[in-house]
């Protein structure tokens, strides 16, 4: 039986990336469920997939004055929905409406909320969480986080949901909606076992992915080990940091290859494709310092590739609750504080934190400074992943001179050991720590069931005037003293 409602999925664009993949998966799930739907995007789907996409140009990234008003954009969106689906009751499913990438999208959501429309507001990224450049665009929104029995906030991980609950969101107006893990095409094993490890980081190299950590690990890895990053950034704002690492790779000759897909081959005469790099990779890695869901932790399991690198409890705790050990991960990568200097770090912290907090319209208090500085110190060490890039390069140059190779430590569950020893042992292990069957909680079937239940609950709920989660409380939760991170500033 066809459900008595349709769904409109709304996003700024359909470029290659995590959110687009989630939307593609959701569309296929809805098709299998027999739920009529349309995807409203500010730009065409660059994948060329045969999905029901309608382009509404006013949805694209737009941060300058001018352009359509919220009322005009809402009118265009409704017209596109009616043209595609007729006049069935609609569930609006917005992705990242509060990210600060469009001048009016938050106001569109507010107007739909006031009209009693059924809505899912799904967060993949938040302007309050390490995106100070985005926040000014949403700071003055009158109704940024509406909720009611017909409006649910959907979260990829429990940590973000806890932030919103602490700020006043009723638990019944929220839902945990983790991404589905889709089974990729099988990767044909190599005929001959490689002589040395090839460690693939399958990401776009934006700042929070922490490229410096790859270079540090490459210094400490067994001879012949190579590290590869699949793609360059696709946003202008991240290119200066990326270009600095490209220049560093050229200057040092370290075995870290950047932007490899389509540009380089993993071995002589092999294709330059992503599939080819996956095939040749002996391991996958994560060094990111922040993620919304953490696809990169689970996808290597589907490929039969072992994962190593940095743990992110904000996302991996949910995996642990599901009984999944995604990889061989360290909690911190520690270097002696004297390699950077306490006063150097403190002065950099003062400058960076003040600028970041000002972007959020917040003053820097002495409590912010002292608690954040104290949080960076770990028994005479600093976590390499929370250093600005120039200080990361300073540390790596010291190691390249042969000084202190065994003073770099990995911390795993409060125990430390030399990172060089840990790497030598870990890179010899070629079996993943989980099996594809362990991922059933994140299957497309499970995702379909969650979507169907969520939409039915919203359509059946009676309209009530929306209330708002106070946005200043959301901001305070993410900016609490002691939480500052250089690579998220």
From TrEMBL:
Q: What is this protein called?
A: Glycosyltransferase subfamily 4-like N-terminal domain-containing protein
